[in-house]
Design brief:
The protein is of the alpha+beta class and about 120 residues long. About 25% of the residues lie in helices and about 30% in strands. The chain has two helices and six strands, in the order E-E-E-H-E-H-E-E.
Length: about 120
């Protein structure tokens, strides 16, 4: 069984696809000067782009893990998230507070999704 990887780097691949399941690396904002809402919007745009490249989309997300550096930002995250997810296709999700590798990043999102049939 083959594994397809997209955007392969020295440290990680942004996407791995196996048996019709798409695994994304944790997505963070590149513009870390943004507030939580801005960083969340950027991260979700990265996810949209990567899922499209992998023949998937946000309606096919199987699970999501969200890491935030400060739970005080949780309402801002949820406001953007709720505007992004598709009604009737909200995925299982866990959100935890955790320090991130880059202290300027406020949020990191990990997604597992199915490919289009």
């Amino acid at each position: 069984m083959a594994v397809t990887r997209l955007h392969v780097g020295k440290r990680l691949s942004e996407v791995a696809i196996h048996n019709g399941t798409v695994y994304l690396a944790g997505q963070i904002a590149e513009d870390t000067k943004q507030d939580m809402a801005g960083q969340t919007r950027e991260v979700l745009a990265h996810i949209d782009r990567l899922l499209a490249e992998a023949n998937s989309d946000k309606t096919l997300i199987l699970s999501t893990q969200i890491f935030v550096t400060d739970m005080a930002n949780f309402p801002a995250l949820n406001a953007v998230w709720e505007g992004w997810v598709v009604e009737g296709h909200t995925p299982p999700r866990a959100t935890v507070q955790a320090p991130l590798a880059n202290p300027a990043c406020l949020v990191e999102v990990v997604v597992v999704a199915a490919q289009r049939g």
